[in-house]
Protein backbone atom coordinates (compact mmCIF):
# COMPACT_ATOMS: atom_id res chain seq x y z
CA UNK A 1 0.00 0.00 0.00
CA UNK A 2 1.14 3.54 -0.71
CA UNK A 3 1.87 6.10 1.96
CA UNK A 4 -1.15 8.15 0.87
CA UNK A 5 -3.47 5.18 1.40
CA UNK A 6 -1.94 4.57 4.85
CA UNK A 7 -2.58 8.16 5.91
CA UNK A 8 -6.16 8.08 4.63
CA UNK A 9 -6.75 4.83 6.52
CA UNK A 10 -5.37 6.34 9.76
CA UNK A 11 -7.56 9.45 9.41
CA UNK A 12 -10.69 7.37 8.78
CA UNK A 13 -9.84 5.13 11.76
CA UNK A 14 -9.48 8.21 13.98
CA UNK A 15 -12.82 9.61 12.79
CA UNK A 16 -14.48 6.25 13.48
CA UNK A 17 -12.94 6.11 16.99
CA UNK A 18 -14.25 9.57 17.96
CA UNK A 19 -17.63 8.69 16.43
CA UNK A 20 -17.80 5.54 18.58
CA UNK A 21 -16.88 7.45 21.74
CA UNK A 22 -19.42 10.20 21.03
CA UNK A 23 -22.19 7.74 20.17
CA UNK A 24 -21.55 5.68 23.32
CA UNK A 25 -21.59 8.77 25.56
CA UNK A 26 -24.78 10.03 23.94
CA UNK A 27 -26.60 6.71 24.38
CA UNK A 28 -25.53 6.40 28.05
CA UNK A 29 -26.64 9.94 28.85
CA UNK A 30 -29.92 9.43 27.00
CA UNK A 31 -30.60 6.25 29.01
CA UNK A 32 -29.82 8.09 32.27
CA UNK A 33 -32.23 10.90 31.46
CA UNK A 34 -35.03 8.50 30.54
CA UNK A 35 -34.47 6.35 33.64
CA UNK A 36 -34.37 9.46 35.87
CA UNK A 37 -37.71 10.66 34.48
CA UNK A 38 -39.18 7.17 35.04
CA UNK A 39 -37.82 7.11 38.62
CA UNK A 40 -39.55 10.41 39.45
CA UNK A 41 -42.83 9.01 38.19
CA UNK A 42 -42.35 5.81 40.24
CA UNK A 43 -41.55 7.60 43.52
CA UNK A 44 -44.64 9.75 43.09
CA UNK A 45 -46.70 6.58 42.58
CA UNK A 46 -45.09 4.90 45.65
CA UNK A 47 -45.76 8.02 47.76
CA UNK A 48 -49.42 7.97 46.72
CA UNK A 49 -49.68 4.27 47.72
CA UNK A 50 -47.98 5.04 51.09
CA UNK A 51 -50.54 7.78 51.82
CA UNK A 52 -53.38 5.42 50.97
CA UNK A 53 -51.97 2.60 53.14
CA UNK A 54 -51.41 4.97 56.05
CA UNK A 55 -55.07 5.99 55.98
CA UNK A 56 -56.34 2.39 55.73
CA UNK A 57 -53.96 0.71 58.21
CA UNK A 58 -53.92 3.37 60.90
CA UNK A 59 -50.38 4.80 60.67
CA UNK A 60 -46.84 4.42 59.42
CA UNK A 61 -45.90 2.14 62.32
CA UNK A 62 -48.82 -0.26 61.84
CA UNK A 63 -47.77 -3.87 61.07
CA UNK A 64 -50.06 -4.05 58.05
CA UNK A 65 -48.59 -0.83 56.65
CA UNK A 66 -45.06 -2.23 56.97
CA UNK A 67 -46.06 -5.49 55.33
CA UNK A 68 -47.79 -3.84 52.39
CA UNK A 69 -44.96 -1.34 51.88
CA UNK A 70 -42.47 -4.19 51.84
CA UNK A 71 -44.41 -5.77 49.00
CA UNK A 72 -44.36 -2.47 47.08
CA UNK A 73 -40.61 -2.18 47.70
CA UNK A 74 -39.91 -5.73 46.46
CA UNK A 75 -41.95 -5.09 43.30
CA UNK A 76 -39.57 -2.26 42.30
CA UNK A 77 -36.19 -3.91 41.39
CA UNK A 78 -34.53 -0.52 40.79
CA UNK A 79 -35.57 0.79 44.23
CA UNK A 80 -32.62 0.46 46.65
CA UNK A 81 -33.93 2.32 49.72
CA UNK A 82 -37.28 3.62 50.96
CA UNK A 83 -37.52 5.81 54.06
CA UNK A 84 -40.39 7.75 55.64
CA UNK A 85 -39.30 10.34 58.19
CA UNK A 86 -40.71 13.18 60.23
CA UNK A 87 -38.94 16.12 61.82
CA UNK A 88 -40.82 15.54 65.13
CA UNK A 89 -40.89 11.73 65.27
CA UNK A 90 -37.63 10.81 63.42
CA UNK A 91 -37.57 7.85 61.04
CA UNK A 92 -41.03 6.28 60.90
CA UNK A 93 -40.31 3.55 58.32
CA UNK A 94 -37.11 2.33 56.65
CA UNK A 95 -36.40 -0.55 54.25
CA UNK A 96 -33.20 -0.96 52.19
CA UNK A 97 -31.47 -3.65 50.20
CA UNK A 98 -28.21 -2.94 52.03
CA UNK A 99 -27.41 -1.20 55.34
CA UNK A 100 -24.55 0.68 53.70
CA UNK A 101 -27.01 3.03 51.95
CA UNK A 102 -27.63 4.82 55.31
CA UNK A 103 -24.56 6.67 56.61
CA UNK A 104 -26.33 8.62 59.36
CA UNK A 105 -27.73 7.63 61.79
CA UNK A 106 -25.40 4.72 62.43
CA UNK A 107 -28.27 2.85 64.13
CA UNK A 108 -32.00 3.54 64.03
CA UNK A 109 -33.56 4.41 67.41
CA UNK A 110 -36.86 6.07 68.42
CA UNK A 111 -34.91 8.90 70.11
CA UNK A 112 -32.97 9.95 66.98
CA UNK A 113 -34.00 13.19 65.27
CA UNK A 114 -32.57 14.96 62.27
CA UNK A 115 -32.08 14.47 58.51
CA UNK A 116 -30.64 11.10 57.38
CA UNK A 117 -27.50 11.02 55.20
CA UNK A 118 -27.45 8.42 52.44
CA UNK A 119 -24.64 6.75 50.43
CA UNK A 120 -25.46 7.36 46.76
CA UNK A 121 -23.24 6.55 43.72
CA UNK A 122 -23.38 9.63 41.52
CA UNK A 123 -24.21 8.93 37.90
CA UNK A 124 -25.65 5.49 38.68
CA UNK A 125 -28.16 6.17 41.51
CA UNK A 126 -30.63 8.99 42.13
CA UNK A 127 -31.97 10.23 45.51
CA UNK A 128 -35.56 11.47 45.34
CA UNK A 129 -37.88 13.03 47.93
CA UNK A 130 -41.67 13.10 48.02
CA UNK A 131 -44.15 14.40 50.62
CA UNK A 132 -46.42 11.69 51.99
CA UNK A 133 -48.16 13.71 54.77
CA UNK A 134 -48.18 17.45 54.74
CA UNK A 135 -46.40 19.18 56.25
CA UNK A 136 -44.03 17.10 58.37
CA UNK A 137 -43.74 13.57 56.88
CA UNK A 138 -41.70 12.95 53.70
CA UNK A 139 -40.44 9.93 51.78
CA UNK A 140 -36.82 9.40 50.64
CA UNK A 141 -36.05 6.89 47.87
CA UNK A 142 -32.87 5.81 46.08
CA UNK A 143 -33.39 4.58 42.51
CA UNK A 144 -30.90 2.96 40.13
CA UNK A 145 -30.81 5.05 36.94
CA UNK A 146 -27.86 3.34 35.20
CA UNK A 147 -27.28 -0.37 35.81
CA UNK A 148 -25.75 -3.28 33.94
CA UNK A 149 -29.01 -3.94 32.14
CA UNK A 150 -28.74 -0.40 30.69
CA UNK A 151 -25.07 -0.66 29.68
CA UNK A 152 -25.36 -4.08 28.04
CA UNK A 153 -27.27 -2.94 24.87
CA UNK A 154 -24.85 -0.03 24.39
CA UNK A 155 -21.75 -2.24 24.67
CA UNK A 156 -23.32 -4.92 22.45
CA UNK A 157 -24.17 -2.46 19.67
CA UNK A 158 -20.69 -0.88 19.89
CA UNK A 159 -19.13 -4.33 19.46
CA UNK A 160 -21.25 -5.08 16.38
CA UNK A 161 -20.34 -1.69 14.89
CA UNK A 162 -16.64 -2.25 15.54
CA UNK A 163 -16.71 -5.69 13.92
CA UNK A 164 -18.47 -4.20 10.87
CA UNK A 165 -15.75 -1.53 10.65
CA UNK A 166 -13.01 -4.18 10.75
CA UNK A 167 -14.76 -6.14 7.99
CA UNK A 168 -15.04 -3.05 5.76
CA UNK A 169 -11.36 -2.21 6.38
CA UNK A 170 -10.30 -5.75 5.43
CA UNK A 171 -12.28 -5.57 2.17
CA UNK A 172 -10.79 -2.15 1.29
CA UNK A 173 -7.24 -3.36 1.99
CA UNK A 174 -7.74 -6.47 -0.15
CA UNK A 175 -9.13 -4.40 -3.02
CA UNK A 176 -6.30 -1.84 -2.78
CA UNK A 177 -3.66 -4.57 -2.64
CA UNK A 178 -5.21 -6.36 -5.63
CA UNK A 179 -5.27 -3.18 -7.72
CA UNK A 180 -1.64 -2.38 -6.82
CA UNK A 181 -0.39 -5.89 -7.58
CA UNK A 182 -2.40 -6.37 -10.81
CA UNK A 183 0.10 -7.13 -13.64
CA UNK A 184 0.11 -5.05 -16.77
CA UNK A 185 -1.77 -6.51 -19.75
CA UNK A 186 0.37 -8.02 -22.54
CA UNK A 187 0.63 -5.81 -25.60
CA UNK A 188 -0.26 -2.63 -23.74
CA UNK A 189 3.09 -1.90 -22.14
CA UNK A 190 4.20 1.68 -21.79
CA UNK A 191 6.88 2.89 -19.38
CA UNK A 192 5.38 4.63 -16.34
CA UNK A 193 6.03 8.39 -16.08
CA UNK A 194 9.22 9.25 -14.29
CA UNK A 195 9.08 11.73 -11.44
CA UNK A 196 12.52 13.11 -12.13
CA UNK A 197 13.56 13.50 -15.76
CA UNK A 198 17.06 12.02 -16.16
CA UNK A 199 19.74 14.10 -17.73
CA UNK A 200 20.84 13.23 -21.27
CA UNK A 201 23.66 10.73 -21.47
CA UNK A 202 26.99 12.52 -21.60
CA UNK A 203 30.11 10.33 -21.76
CA UNK A 204 32.68 11.55 -19.31
CA UNK A 205 36.19 12.19 -20.45
CA UNK A 206 38.88 9.93 -19.01
CA UNK A 207 40.47 11.39 -15.93
CA UNK A 208 43.66 13.25 -16.64
CA UNK A 209 46.76 12.72 -14.65
CA UNK A 210 47.81 15.69 -12.50
CA UNK A 211 50.58 17.81 -13.97
CA UNK A 212 54.05 16.68 -13.01
CA UNK A 213 57.10 18.72 -12.44
CA UNK A 214 59.13 18.94 -15.58
CA UNK A 215 62.39 17.06 -15.53
CA UNK A 216 64.64 17.70 -18.49
CA UNK A 217 65.76 14.52 -20.21
CA UNK A 218 69.43 13.58 -19.95
CA UNK A 219 71.62 15.04 -22.57
CA UNK A 220 72.12 12.78 -25.56
CA UNK A 221 74.65 12.90 -28.24
CA UNK A 222 73.27 14.52 -31.35
CA UNK A 223 72.21 12.08 -34.00
CA UNK A 224 74.27 11.93 -37.14
CA UNK A 225 73.19 14.46 -39.66
CA UNK A 226 72.48 11.83 -42.26
CA UNK A 227 69.91 9.91 -40.03
CA UNK A 228 66.52 11.65 -39.61
CA UNK A 229 64.83 11.32 -36.14
CA UNK A 230 62.31 8.47 -35.79
CA UNK A 231 58.79 9.75 -34.82
CA UNK A 232 57.25 8.38 -31.60
CA UNK A 233 54.41 5.83 -32.07
CA UNK A 234 50.88 7.25 -31.82
CA UNK A 235 48.42 5.44 -29.48
CA UNK A 236 45.35 4.11 -31.27
CA UNK A 237 42.08 5.98 -30.60
CA UNK A 238 39.58 4.40 -28.15
CA UNK A 239 37.18 1.89 -29.66
CA UNK A 240 33.80 3.43 -30.38
CA UNK A 241 30.75 1.73 -28.78
CA UNK A 242 28.28 -0.34 -30.78
CA UNK A 243 25.98 1.85 -32.87
CA UNK A 244 23.52 3.87 -30.75
CA UNK A 245 24.65 2.26 -27.48
CA UNK A 246 26.33 3.82 -24.49
CA UNK A 247 29.89 2.98 -23.50
CA UNK A 248 30.23 -0.14 -21.38
CA UNK A 249 32.42 1.78 -18.89
CA UNK A 250 29.56 4.15 -18.11
CA UNK A 251 26.99 1.46 -17.31
CA UNK A 252 27.83 1.05 -13.62
CA UNK A 253 27.99 4.83 -12.81
CA UNK A 254 24.63 5.39 -14.55
CA UNK A 255 23.12 2.34 -12.82
CA UNK A 256 24.21 3.57 -9.38
CA UNK A 257 22.75 7.03 -10.14
CA UNK A 258 19.40 5.53 -11.22
CA UNK A 259 19.32 3.27 -8.14
CA UNK A 260 19.98 6.26 -5.86
CA UNK A 261 17.18 8.23 -7.53
CA UNK A 262 14.73 5.29 -7.29
CA UNK A 263 15.52 4.68 -3.60
CA UNK A 264 15.14 8.34 -2.64
CA UNK A 265 11.75 8.57 -4.42
CA UNK A 266 10.55 5.06 -3.38
CA UNK A 267 10.30 4.01 -7.04
CA UNK A 268 11.25 0.80 -8.82
CA UNK A 269 14.02 0.21 -11.37
CA UNK A 270 14.33 -2.67 -13.85
CA UNK A 271 17.57 -3.90 -15.50
CA UNK A 272 17.44 -6.22 -18.52
CA UNK A 273 20.28 -7.99 -20.33
CA UNK A 274 19.47 -8.86 -23.99
CA UNK A 275 21.63 -11.40 -25.87
CA UNK A 276 21.42 -12.93 -29.33
CA UNK A 277 20.79 -16.67 -29.46
CA UNK A 278 23.60 -18.51 -31.30
CA UNK A 279 25.47 -15.47 -32.68
CA UNK A 280 28.40 -17.58 -33.95
CA UNK A 281 31.40 -16.15 -35.76
CA UNK A 282 29.36 -13.86 -37.99
CA UNK A 283 31.26 -11.05 -39.69
CA UNK A 284 28.02 -9.10 -39.87
CA UNK A 285 27.50 -9.27 -36.09
CA UNK A 286 28.13 -5.51 -35.53
CA UNK A 287 25.45 -4.71 -38.13
CA UNK A 288 23.06 -7.20 -36.51
CA UNK A 289 23.63 -5.56 -33.11
CA UNK A 290 23.02 -2.15 -34.69
CA UNK A 291 19.69 -3.31 -36.12
CA UNK A 292 18.73 -4.89 -32.79
CA UNK A 293 19.55 -1.64 -30.99
CA UNK A 294 17.31 0.25 -33.40
CA UNK A 295 14.38 -2.02 -32.47
CA UNK A 296 15.14 -1.53 -28.77
CA UNK A 297 15.14 2.24 -29.19
CA UNK A 298 11.71 2.02 -30.85
CA UNK A 299 10.32 0.13 -27.82
CA UNK A 300 12.09 2.11 -25.06
CA UNK A 301 12.15 5.89 -25.63
CA UNK A 302 14.92 6.60 -23.07
CA UNK A 303 17.80 6.08 -25.50
CA UNK A 304 20.52 7.07 -23.05
CA UNK A 305 19.77 4.02 -20.87
CA UNK A 306 20.93 1.42 -23.46
CA UNK A 307 24.52 0.21 -22.96
CA UNK A 308 26.80 -2.26 -24.70
CA UNK A 309 27.77 -5.28 -22.57
CA UNK A 310 29.51 -7.59 -25.04
CA UNK A 311 29.83 -8.35 -28.71
CA UNK A 312 26.42 -10.03 -28.83
CA UNK A 313 24.47 -8.40 -25.98
CA UNK A 314 23.39 -5.13 -24.41
CA UNK A 315 21.89 -3.84 -21.13
CA UNK A 316 18.70 -1.76 -20.79
CA UNK A 317 17.78 0.34 -17.72
CA UNK A 318 14.00 0.84 -17.36
CA UNK A 319 13.18 3.38 -14.61
CA UNK A 320 9.99 3.28 -12.51
CA UNK A 321 8.93 -0.20 -13.71
CA UNK A 322 8.16 -3.26 -11.54
CA UNK A 323 9.00 -6.84 -12.52
CA UNK A 324 5.67 -7.88 -14.14
CA UNK A 325 5.42 -4.76 -16.31
CA UNK A 326 9.10 -5.12 -17.30
CA UNK A 327 8.65 -8.77 -18.31
CA UNK A 328 5.59 -7.96 -20.45
CA UNK A 329 7.32 -5.05 -22.18
CA UNK A 330 10.49 -7.04 -22.86
CA UNK A 331 8.44 -9.97 -24.17
CA UNK A 332 6.92 -7.59 -26.72
CA UNK A 333 10.47 -6.58 -27.68
CA UNK A 334 11.47 -10.27 -28.04
CA UNK A 335 8.52 -10.95 -30.38
CA UNK A 336 9.35 -7.84 -32.41
CA UNK A 337 13.00 -8.91 -32.87
CA UNK A 338 11.97 -12.48 -33.77
CA UNK A 339 9.59 -11.17 -36.43
CA UNK A 340 12.09 -8.75 -38.03
CA UNK A 341 14.91 -10.00 -40.30
CA UNK A 342 18.30 -8.81 -39.05
CA UNK A 343 20.86 -8.63 -41.86
CA UNK A 344 19.11 -11.13 -44.08
CA UNK A 345 17.68 -13.71 -41.65
CA UNK A 346 15.43 -14.17 -38.63
CA UNK A 347 17.21 -14.21 -35.29
CA UNK A 348 16.02 -14.67 -31.71
CA UNK A 349 17.15 -13.23 -28.38
CA UNK A 350 17.11 -14.34 -24.74
CA UNK A 351 16.41 -11.74 -22.06
CA UNK A 352 17.02 -11.78 -18.28
CA UNK A 353 15.51 -9.03 -16.12
CA UNK A 354 15.63 -8.06 -12.44
CA UNK A 355 14.17 -5.14 -10.44
CA UNK A 356 14.92 -3.26 -7.24
CA UNK A 357 11.57 -4.39 -5.73
CA UNK A 358 11.76 -2.04 -2.76
CA UNK A 359 15.24 -3.21 -1.70
CA UNK A 360 18.35 -1.18 -0.83
CA UNK A 361 20.83 -2.92 -3.12
CA UNK A 362 23.89 -2.14 -5.22
CA UNK A 363 23.99 -2.08 -8.99
CA UNK A 364 26.30 -5.09 -9.02
CA UNK A 365 23.57 -7.18 -7.35
CA UNK A 366 21.02 -6.12 -9.96
CA UNK A 367 23.43 -7.07 -12.76
CA UNK A 368 24.12 -10.48 -11.21
CA UNK A 369 20.39 -11.24 -10.87
CA UNK A 370 19.80 -10.31 -14.52
CA UNK A 371 22.72 -12.58 -15.54
CA UNK A 372 21.20 -15.46 -13.55
CA UNK A 373 17.85 -14.96 -15.32
CA UNK A 374 19.56 -14.72 -18.75
CA UNK A 375 21.50 -17.95 -18.12
CA UNK A 376 18.26 -19.72 -17.21
CA UNK A 377 16.57 -18.44 -20.39
CA UNK A 378 19.49 -19.71 -22.52
CA UNK A 379 19.53 -23.13 -20.81
CA UNK A 380 15.82 -23.60 -21.44
CA UNK A 381 16.16 -23.14 -25.21
CA UNK A 382 16.42 -19.38 -25.64
CA UNK A 383 13.94 -17.00 -27.31
CA UNK A 384 12.24 -16.17 -24.02
CA UNK A 385 12.18 -13.65 -21.16
CA UNK A 386 12.98 -14.76 -17.60
CA UNK A 387 12.39 -12.39 -14.65
CA UNK A 388 14.19 -12.56 -11.30
CA UNK A 389 11.44 -12.11 -8.68
CA UNK A 390 13.06 -10.92 -5.44
CA UNK A 391 11.48 -11.49 -2.02
CA UNK A 392 11.75 -8.09 -0.25
CA UNK A 393 10.74 -9.52 3.15
CA UNK A 394 13.38 -12.26 2.95
CA UNK A 395 15.93 -9.67 1.76
CA UNK A 396 15.26 -7.50 4.86
CA UNK A 397 15.44 -10.59 7.06
CA UNK A 398 18.88 -11.41 5.62
CA UNK A 399 20.11 -7.84 6.24
CA UNK A 400 18.82 -7.53 9.81
CA UNK A 401 19.46 -11.12 10.88
CA UNK A 402 15.94 -11.47 12.33
CA UNK A 403 12.54 -12.44 10.90
CA UNK A 404 10.69 -9.56 9.21
How many runs of DSSP E, i.e. beta strands? Answer: 11
CATH class bucket of the largest domain: Alpha Beta
Task: Kindly provide the radius of gyration, computed on alpha-carbon positions and rounded to a whole number of angstroms.
Answer: 46 Å
Q: What coarse outline follows from CA principal-axis ratios?
A: rod-shaped
Stated plainly, the CATH topology of the largest domain is called Alpha-Beta Plaits
Structural class designation: alpha+beta
Major β-sheet profile: 5 strands, mixed
User: What is the number of helices?
Assistant: 8
Counting structural domains, the number is: 2
Secondary-structure arrangement, i.e. CATH architecture of the largest domain: 2-Layer Sandwich
Helix content percent band: 40-55%
Given as residue ranges, the uncertain stretches (5+ residues, pLDDT < 50) are 186-190, 233-240
Mean pLDDT: 82
**For the record, what is the CATH homologous superfamily label of the largest domain?**
Reverse transcriptase/Diguanylate cyclase domain
Strand percent estimate: 15-25%
Model description:
This protein is an alpha+beta fold and 404 residues long. It has helices at residues 3-57, 63-74, 148-181, 251-264, 285-299, 323-338, 363-379, 392-400, and strands at residues 79-86, 90-96, 102-104, 117-118, 125-133, 137-144, 269-276, 306-310, 313-319, 349-355, 385-388. The chain folds into two domains: 3-148, Beta-Lactamase, CATH 3.30.450; 248-400, 2-Layer Sandwich (Alpha-Beta Plaits), CATH 3.30.70. 43% of the residues lie in helices and 17% in strands. The strands form three sheets. The chain has a five-stranded mixed sheet. It has a four-stranded antiparallel sheet with strand order 2-1-6-5, covered by helices on one side.
Amino acid sequence: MTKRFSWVFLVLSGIFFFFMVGLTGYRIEDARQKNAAGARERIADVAAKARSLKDTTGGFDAPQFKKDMRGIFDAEPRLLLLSIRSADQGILYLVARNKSFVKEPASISPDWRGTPVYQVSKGYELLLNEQVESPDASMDAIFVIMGREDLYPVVRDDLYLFLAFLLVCAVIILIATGIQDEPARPGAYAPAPIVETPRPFEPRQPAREPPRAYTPPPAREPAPAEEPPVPAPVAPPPVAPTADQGWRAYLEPRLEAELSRAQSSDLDLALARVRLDEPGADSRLPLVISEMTRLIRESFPLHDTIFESGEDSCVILIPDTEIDAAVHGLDDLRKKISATPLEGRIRSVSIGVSTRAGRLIEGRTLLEEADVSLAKASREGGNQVIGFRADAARFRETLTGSPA
